[in-house]
Design a protein that fits this description.
Two copies of one chain form a homodimer. By secondary structure, chain A is α/β, with parallel strands linked by helices. Helices cover 41% and strands 14% of the residues of chain A. The longest helix of chain A is centred in the middle third of the chain and has 16 residues. The N terminus of chain A is likely disordered. In chain A, helix 7 links the parallel strand 3 and strand 4. In chain A, the strands form three sheets. Chain A has a six-stranded parallel beta sheet with strand order 2-1-3-4-5-11, sandwiched between helices. In chain A, strands 7-6-8-9 form a four-stranded parallel beta sheet, with helices on both faces. A two-stranded antiparallel sheet of chain A has the order 10-12. The relative contact order of chain A is 0.12. At the A-B interface, helix 4, helix 5, strand 2, helix 6 and helix 11 of A face helix 4, helix 5, strand 2, helix 6 and helix 11 of B. Strand 2 of chain A pairs antiparallel with strand 2 of chain B, so a sheet runs across the interface. Chain B binds a DNA duplex through helix 2 and helix 4.
DNA sequence: TTGAAAGCGCTAACAG
DNA sequence: CTGTTAGCGCTTTCAA
């Protein structure tokens, strides 16, 4: 049985060169058992000389852990993900894990071996998963739960009966306060709302907040003012642009998030509609560029980096056998008033 | 020898349930050999029923490939990385690979098992690497080269003699044109330059472009006008702020990149220095928010998403045994005139 | 404190 | 087209 012998240094080479058994080398590498100082010293030298690197796959196979965690999202568009990834990556790295990133959009396009049985991220190539918003269906979550696979959900709550840890942000109350501001302080009444992706909870709760505010002020809900902006600049731009072609009797836009707000501003500017004099524009997230927009954007500050950090902590705790502090974490948000709503003159 | 038998479905279970050998199952899974339609059909059903998922580690061990590629950077700060990652991820996913992301900043902070021999990314847990800018030292590149480990470099050229594929962008000529514009069109002469991280080539070439322009116009190079902005908003803000405390005789700032330009604008605004009337500000990258800044930023458009896409293509080609189209790819950039330089009134 | 040895789940010769 | 089987490199009992 001839087989191309991969010419790399294995644990056996190290053991031989150091005059010990592979078990000892393994113990040394993993600090999983006693090793005499003399042997340890020798091993350190030999490993350096040989430039030895353990084979990750072999470790995974033998130990049943990968020391990797996955991050899953429908897509990775927009600035939103930068603080999120930074938050995740910072704790994941510190705790000795590697981060795997996958977006489902790509996966659907792609071939992936044409085999449904080989998922990009999941048991067997990661020890756990952080899943953003609607990246995992209820059914997929059920399957993962059956396998007892560690998953932490962010910006989404699990189906009933699945006690996955969750990190979400307060959407409804903040949106309510934001729209209240538009109505009460600036007297706006025809407020366009650009909702996000259909299956996203953020989208749902922001719409609830929007409706609640209208209702509280006795403003009738006009379905024609509610469009789909997709939480994304391009789609928001198109939505606003087409709205403007047949109707201009609105005096404010809640863009759904800041990314979309930028698209909205672009569309309005093209038609020379002045912000905020003629139309007020507000967003959600408070991305770090939002204060630099022209005019600076009134929005809701969401602690996105914290979401990432906390989710990663929950997951690492779980994986490391530390009791997870809270099953559900709801992070507070707050309205940030700048100029796009009409404040500050 | 009692061992906690991981209760998961293996290829053997599938083989048994389908009444075939594991080899057949493997061939089916990998399309690595003929399988009769009948068997294939049965296998498909059995795999679904059993909810079977192959063990990635075992595959890696047996096949010597991981189907994963790593992305390495010093940090993941700023919007710059969004298009880059999107570009990379899109082709990587389509070609059946998984993306691993690691930043060295985290790694240095972290413990990583306290063992230098266990790298986060490299041979044995990825088939190849895309390394951004200064994330890999010359020496590390030499070691990887010795191991014949596939690496594609972006925004950095390899040390002499290491024929790694490279994707970079044109920095010097574009910077030169940008500064020329400031001088020739707007008559600016005291131009502050905020350089990036010390070991980054982008930083070096942009400085060269800056110098070349000054020299061509007979303006003396004033080292006191050259600060370190770190290609990053916060550092740029601090640098400008402190400069302003003891000297205000400059009439323009080349921020190094757009991220830094935002920090610069912030610092100038705090001192009520009008942009562009009193001080022109220009950047580099043309991040997608740059056109929304106040005033819209004059900058250099860099095809960041293309860089990611092309680098990923090169790497996947290499890994898949397809000859790499070009060893070195230099992508063009171009000046984008907006208002922060003083144009358009 | 150490070593021997049994797998972990899969791939890939090779023979049929 | 299919089955048999020898590892891949490592971890982890267990006995010494």
């Amino acid at each position: 049985m001839v087989r191309k012998k991969p010419s790399s240094v294995t644990i056996r080479d190290v053991a031989r060169a150091a005059g010990v058994s592979v078990a000892t080398v393994s113990r040394y590498l993993n600090r999983s058992g006693p090793v005499s100082p003399r042997v340890a010293q020798k091993l350190a030298r030999v490993i350096a000389e040989l430039n030895y690197m353990p084979h990750a796959g072999a470790r995974h196979l033998a130990s049943h852990r990968t020391r990797a965690v996955g991050f899953l999202s429908q897509n990775i568009l927009g600035d939103f993900f930068i603080p999120l990834l930074r938050g995740i990556e910072s704790v994941i790295g510190r705790r000795g894990y590697t981060l795997l990133v996958a977006s489902r959009q790509t996966l659907l396009d792609g071939v992936i071996g044409g085999n449904e049985a080989v998922p990009p991220l999941g048991p067997h190539n990661a020890d756990g998963l952080i899943a953003f918003a609607d990246s995992l269906s209820d059914e997929e979550l059920h399957r993962l739960y059956q396998r007892r696979f560690p998953v932490v959900l962010i910006h989404r709550t699990p189906p009933d009966g699945l006690p996955f840890p969750v990190v979400t942000i307060e959407n409804k109350a903040a949106t309510r306060a934001l729209i209240d501001h538009l109505i009460e302080v600036h007297g706006r009444k025809q407020i366009v709302f650009l909702r996000g992706p259909a299956n996203q909870e953020d989208s749902y709760w922001r719409e609830e907040g929007y409706k609640a505010s209208l209702q509280a002020h006795g403003i009738e809900y006009d379905p024609a003012l509610v469009l789909t902006g997709g939480f994304e600049r391009g789609m928001a731009y198109e939505a606003m642009k087409s709205l403007c072609t047949f109707r201009l009797d609105f005096d404010a836009v809640f863009a759904g998030n800041d990314d979309a707000a930028i698209g909205v501003m672009e569309a309005l500017r093209e038609r020379d509609i002045r912000i905020p004099e003629r139309v007020a524009v507000v967003g959600f997230d408070d991305q770090w560029v939002s204060s630099f927009l022209d005019p600076p954007l009134t929005t809701v500050a969401a602690p996105t980096e914290d979401v990432g950090r906390i989710a990663a902590q929950r997951l690492c705790d779980w994986l490391d056998g530390i009791p997870v502090a809270e099953l559900a974490t709801l992070l507070p948000t707050r309205v940030v008033i700048r100029r796009s709503c009409g404040c500050n003159g």
